[in-house]
Write a structure and sequence with these properties.
Blueprint: E1 6-12, E2 15-22, E3 29-34, H1 44-52, E4 58-64, H2 66-69, H3 78-93, E5 99-104, H4 106-118, E6 122-126, H5 141-145, E7 151-156, E8 173-177, H6 194-211
Parallel strand pairs: 3-4, 3-5, 5-6, 6-7, 7-8
Antiparallel strand pairs: 1-2, 2-4
Helix pairs in contact: 1-6, 3-4
Protein name: Hydrolase SCO5215, alpha/beta fold family
GO molecular function, one term: hydrolase activity
Domain KANL3/Tex30 alpha/beta hydrolase-like: 29-207
């Protein structure tokens, strides 16, 4: 049986960040996931993972970047996001377990950019923003292709920041949530409920984590 979530504030060079730990009873690894540039850890995908993974031996660390903790509405530059993530890493690694770096959207980019440097065991990229909407020529594929560790991308089928078919070949794994938008919301006409969409996402992540050994 999992223990109750707890919060931990961490001082970084970008300001004070916060981790909400959702512990597994007998954890084998930590999945650290941060939010995107337009929301927080209440995002449906992050909450679904926090609910599902502790039962599979994965402690989930929901990371709030300093700008969110400070109550700001707009995310800072990527370099500042990386600084906040680096400052959090010692706390994430403190349990002495392999840490999988993850995040959604802007948080996924941070995880990709810093994975090798920080010694992440793997990367989970949720709704990776391959390009700005309508600007496929502004590709961020290099960030994804350069993680240097096992990587899973979970992408909505209708994500305007990059549909699954737009992703370049690479050594990463790609899983699709059919009909999902950038926040994995699915339209009623799709025949999928939000619960089913989140089930597809959590099953993909759970299966991938199992494959890591």
């Amino acid at each position: 049986m999992s223990r109750q979530p707890r919060t931990q504030n961490v001082t970084t060079d970008a300001g004070e960040a916060r981790i909400t730990w959702v512990p597994a009873a007998a954890p084998r690894r930590v999945l650290a996931v941060s939010h995107g540039a337009g929301g927080g850890i209440e995002a449906r995908d992050l909450q679904a993972l926090a609910a599902a993974l502790p039962g599979h031996g994965v402690t989930v660390a929901l990371v709030e970047q300093p700008w969110r903790v400070a109550g700001k509405k707009v995310a800072p530059a990527p370099k500042t996001l990386d600084t906040g993530w680096r400052g959090l890493w010692p706390a994430l690694a403190a349990p002495g377990l392999p840490v999988i770096a993850g995040g959604r959207s802007a948080g996924a980019r941070v995880a990709c950019r810093t994975a090798t440097e920080l010694g992440a065991a793997a990367v989970l990229a949720l709704s990776f923003p391959l390009h700005p909407p309508g600007r496929p020529e502004k590709s961020r594929a290099d960030e994804l292709l350069g993680t240097g560790v096992p990587t899973l991308v979970v992408q909505g089928g209708n994500d305007p920041f990059g549909k699954p078919g737009e992703f370049p070949p690479g050594s990463y794994t790609l899983a699709e949530v059919p009909h999902g938008d950038h926040g994995f919301a699915v339209p009623k006409r799709s025949g999928l409920t939000e619960e089913q969409a989140m089930g597809i996402l959590t099953e993909a992540v759970t299966g991938w984590l199992t494959s890591l050994g």
